[in-house]
Specification:
heterodimer; A: 517 residues; MetI-like fold; 24 helices; globular; B: 342 residues; alpha+beta; Rossmann fold; OB fold (Dihydrolipoamide Acetyltransferase, E2P); five-stranded antiparallel β-sheet; 8 helices
Chain lengths: 517, 342
């Protein structure tokens, strides 16, 4: 009888019992306002200096140079990531590469290395590497999993029949496969480009001047913050172009990945096994092995050079405190939005869901900057106080939290809520007694993810932290900046440990799915 | 309480799903709404529960107009397709969900009603599918709703289990004295369980009545073929007699004359052996044909006969028939047939 239900549903889009209850709608609208406020405030602030200032800032040769460097860096890293991601995915999913399961896990692991930690490990070992080359190296090694993961997923769900047909028609296998991988590779590549444009920590450790670092410098250097705002807006604009492009390819990529292959794939026998092993092994060594060894070296050899245990302890406590507060606030704000996104259709619901993604597409430094502007102007008591930092975390990590709530609400069927309504519960009581208790494990996992991510956050923390407060990330950044590599090592080690938890879980799960015969 | 649905209309995106749909279920009655996939029965049910708003028409429960009320103010119990017990609550708390706190006696009473006394402390996943469905019924009945709606409640169950759960549910509903509407596409379920059957097609209730009378006098050819099996043949009617390939048959549609169709129930056919010698002119054997297929079900059998005229009929007989494919037999018709003019 699923046929009736399905056809009824097509004709009768579920309204989730009608209107969105005010108790969900009002907090969601406020959250949307909060999430969108950075863009709004940046516009206001940049406009205040008058069009003249904006034009002056934009037409400076320096601005053009920065734009060219940021875009160039993004382009080079993206191309390299696509090359590495596609080749590794192919080797792991389709060939008889020895130890391909292990390589599958290793290939996803760089996600667990915060880019500024990786930058620290390279600069600490090879000080000459800084600049453009060093930035490319570090960002490529940290970002290629964004291409590798979707491409490997697409490869493992590709219908082998299509390939066989093409082969029988005299086409080369690789050409056919490449064509089918284009959507997922493009989606992953654009994601890489987005992250590189927003990147702050690694490039600033590599002493490369790009948009984000220049925004930071110009914010630090002068009382006139209009130039920083204009630069921020320009960066947002460039990023938005990439976001739009990414959203477009994502739809098609998801389509290509839907469903599972009807039967097993043939394993392709590698001719140059040694070369393939060297390639996969070398990448794993550089992306995962090198940071670990480097941190280990400094921990063992250099911890005596000026590590203050009291400082480390204070940083741990501060990090835990602001991150926990951030996770709590973000999750609290995400619950009404996630429920609306899961259970309601219509323009309001769509607007609310999309507004929550602002944090995903805005560089952290830009969000932080707009919060600084706002506080200095309208909420002086909040300036350089932890509540403001916690609010910025909420904007930054709202997308992840809303996604987690939405997914966990979707896991229980709406009919349970309808039964509760029929038994006399009002919409909000239904949320409290049925929807939330059932979604609780997923919501909790989302909160944990936000907690772990907030502990690694650098640019917003750097700008908004209370005076005198250092987190693990800011302390690592400061020590590295002054060349105290030994003192930085414990911070780097702790950050790696924190970051490894979700990365490891993610990597293991996807590898299990993809390398299954 | 009595449920009255009057002239309800609903369309989704310009596509009408319900048009002038009316239904009355008397107090304490179990009514089945029976219709094929996509006929609008689920939408009708969602309008009665308040999960959809009708574009036009009204819904009354007892003397109360509930058309504009939200679901929680209607007093309509629902038993969904897959039981949909709250997985995080015990059986007792599921049943007590619609009751004020501390209504332990009523919870025990309702569990007793569905034959699950003593199951209160189990969790839903510890129950079988049939037990879950009975808990869902107890949960719906506990607050003494004006009407209970059952949405294809036996679909998810094994065939073997379905009949017993069906009996249990009917018994519990009757003991509770509940007014109930069963939505289903399974005509056997509707005919065997319900006090009245409402046949739904393309967003309308086309016929309402007792199961036996709907079966005996279907409103039109569509209902005749949807409710039970029927053999449909072209015919021409004069003076209450329909002439068709099976001969001149008396029919019930008295006034109707002219071309049309007759519908015959499989149990109306009587088969008889024809001796090889006798020709088609043999008086009492009716029309002749050849046995094409014999389906044996134990207590009865279905025999497909290809008539000499070229038509094929499927007849129901006792199980102990001696016919085999290839046998020549005669076919006669017992009782009046159904005639529907063009």
């Amino acid at each position: 009888m699923s046929a009736t239900r399905a056809s009824d549903r097509v004709r009768a889009p579920r309204q989730g019992g009608g209107r969105i209850p005010a108790a969900l709608l009002v907090p969601s609208l406020l959250t949307a306002l909060l999430a969108l406020s950075p863009i709004g405030y940046l516009l206001v602030r940049a406009g205040e200096g008058g069009l003249g200032t904006a034009v002056r800032v934009l037409s400076r040769p320096r601005t053009l140079e920065l734009a060219a460097r940021s875009v160039g860096l993004a382009a080079v890293v993206t191309v390299l990531c696509v090359a590495i991601g596609v080749s590794l995915a192919w080797l792991v999913v389709r060939t008889d590469l020895p130890g391909r399961r292990a390589f599958g896990v290793l290939a996803a692991l760089p996600l667990a290395v915060p880019s500024y930690v990786a930058a620290y490990t390279w600069v600490a070992a090879v000080p000459d590497i800084s600049g453009f080359t060093g930035s490319v190296l570090v960002l490529t090694l940290c970002s290629y999993p964004y291409v590798y993961l979707p491409v490997a997923a697409a490869l493992s769900r590709m219908d082998p029949a299509m390939e066989e047909v093409a082969l029988s028609l005299g086409r080369r296998r690789f050409a056919v496969v490449l064509r089918q991988l284009r959507p997922s590779a493009a989606a992953g590549g654009l994601l890489v480009a987005m992250y590189v444009l927003a990147e702050f920590g690694a490039v600033s450790i590599m002493r490369l001047d790009v948009f984000t670092t220049q925004i930071y410098t110009s914010y630090r250097a002068s009382f006139d913050r209009t130039p920083a705002a204009v630069l921020g807006l320009l960066l947002v604009l460039i990023t938005l172009l990439v976001v739009v492009a990414e959203a477009r390819t994502r739809g098609r990529a998801a389509y290509a990945m839907r469903g599972s292959p009807p039967r097993g794939r043939s394993v392709i026998r590698l001719r140059a096994k040694g070369l393939a092993l060297a390639w996969s092994g070398g990448l794993a060594a550089l992306a995962v092995g090198f940071p670990l060894v480097s941190i280990g070296y400094w921990l063992a050899g250099g911890s005596s050079t000026g590590l203050d245990p009291g400082e480390l302890g204070a940083a741990v406590v501060a990090t835990l405190g602001v991150s926990a507060a951030g996770a709590l606030l973000t999750t609290a704000l995400a619950v009404p939005m996630g429920i609306i996104a899961a259970r309601h259709r219509g323009r309001t619901a769509a607007f609310l869901e999309q507004s929550s993604y602002a944090g995903h597409s805005l560089p952290g430094i830009v969000i932080a900057l707009s919060f600084v502007f706002f506080a200095v102007r309208y909420a002086e008591p909040l300036y350089q106080r932890s509540p403001l930092l916690v609010l910025a975390y909420a904007v930054l990590f709202l997308p992840a939290a809303v996604g987690a709530v939405r997914a966990s609400v979707l896991q229980s069927p709406p009919v349970l809520e309808e039964v509760a309504r029929s038994l006399g519960r009002r919409p909000l009581q239904t949320v409290r007694e049925v929807t939330l208790p059932l979604a609780f494990p997923g919501v909790l996992a989302g909160a944990a993810l936000v907690f772990l991510t907030a502990m690694k956050e650098l640019p917003a923390t750097l700008l908004l932290r209370p005076t005198g407060m250092e987190t693990l990330a800011t302390q690592l950044w400061t020590e590295t900046g002054s060349g105290a590599y030994g003192a930085a090592a414990p911070y780097a080690a702790l950050l790696m440990l924190l970051a490894a938890i979700p990365g490891f879980v993610l990597g293991r799960r996807s590898v299990k799915e993809m390398t299954a015969p | 309480m009595r449920l009255t649905v009057t002239e309800v209309a609903k369309s989704f995106g310009g596509v009408p799903v319900l048009q002038g749909c009316s239904l009355v279920v008397e107090e304490g009655e179990l009514a089945a709404v029976l219709g094929p996939s996509g006929c609008g029965k689920t939408t009708l049910l969602r309008i009665v529960t308040g999960f959809e708003q009708a574009d036009a028409g009204s819904v009354r429960i007892g003397d109360r107009e509930v058309t504009g009320l939200p679901p929680e103010k209607r007093g309509v119990g629902i038993v969904p397709q897959e039981a949909a017990l709250f997985p995080h609550l015990t059986v007792a708390r599921n049943v007590g969900f619609g009751l004020p706190r501390g209504s332990r006696d009523r919870v025990a009473e309702c569990l007793e009603l569905v034959g699950l006394a003593g199951f209160g402390e189990r969790m839903p996943h510890e129950l079988s599918g049939g037990q879950q469905q009975r808990v869902a019924l107890a949960r719906a009945l506990a607050p003494r709703p004006g009407v209970v709606l059952l949405d294809e409640p036996f679909n998810a169950l094994d065939r073997s289990l379905r009949v017993t759960v069906r009996d249990d549910v009917r018994a519990a509903l009757k003991r509770a004295g509940a007014t109930a509407v069963l939505v289903t596409h399974d005509q056997e379920e509707a005919l065997s369980m319900a006090d009245t059957v409402a046949v739904m097609r393309e967003g309308r209730i086309v016929q309402e009545g007792m199961p036996a009378s709907v079966y005996a006098t279907p409103h039109d050819l569509g209902v005749a073929t949807f409710i039970g099996e029927a053999v449909v043949l072209e015919a021409y009617s004069t003076d209450g007699v329909a002439s068709c390939t099976l001969g001149d048959l008396p029919h019930r549609a008295n006034g109707a004359t002219g071309p049309g169709h007759v519908a015959l129930r499989p149990e109306q056919f009587e088969l008889s052996e024809v001796s090889g010698l006798s020709g088609p002119s043999e008086p009492d054997a009716g029309v002749h044909g050849e046995v094409e297929r014999v389906e044996f079900f134990g207590h009865d059998a279905a025999i497909t006969v290809r008539l000499d005229s070229g038509n094929t009929i499927r007849a129901r007989t006792r199980g102990d028939v001696p016919y085999r494919p290839g046998h020549r037999i005669g076919v006669t018709v017992r009782g009046p047939v159904l005639f529907y003019p063009e």
